Amino acid sequence: MIRAGDTIENPVTGERVTFLKTSAQTGGEFVLIDTTVAPNGFVAAEHLHPYQSERFEILEGEVEFKVGGKLVTAGAGDVVVVEPGTAHRFRNVGEGEVRFRCEVRPALNFETFLVTMFGLAADGKTGKKGLPNPFRLAVIMAEHFDLVRLPSVPAWVQRTGLALGAPVGRLLGYEPTYHSRTEPERLDPAA
């Protein structure tokens, strides 16, 4: 279970996330994370959250967001809000690390999804864009369909693809969650 102070890392996308407030702490209202993105780092894919909003407060560096089809470059002190159902992605366009605080509302199972995707990347089970093979991804996405979706494919088409791909993925032994061989770093090891 993720706790405040836990840090996970995605070596493929260059993202490092520290959980500041967890779903358990906020009664499911939100998750608050501190994110660092390495130079040339990026979120794995353009996506949307059908029922969640995200608020990004840039603390250091320069981040390029694509939000609803528009490019926005944000620097320290800027805030970018992504409303539910809005396609978005981000990438570090600067030469140094970028750091931002992100609040995701409501929490839903955001933590589990992030731990799964980062864990797969940390264990070398994703491609160069940070995504696992299509059958494993189908199993994960079928479980998290209310959390995250592709913006360019209608939801019914995605559901149909997942209904076909996820059972094959399960037959291959893939599960909707993944626990990395590497435990999250803890700010306070006694916690």
From TrEMBL:
Database matches in InterPro entries: Cupin_2 (IPR013096), QDO-like (IPR053146), RmlC-like_jellyroll (IPR014710), RmlC_Cupin_sf (IPR011051)
SUPFAM superfamilies registered for this protein in UniProt: RmlC-like cupins (SSF51182)
Residues of the Cupin type-2 domain: 36-100
Superkingdom per UniProt: Bacteria
Listed name of the protein: Cupin 2, conserved barrel
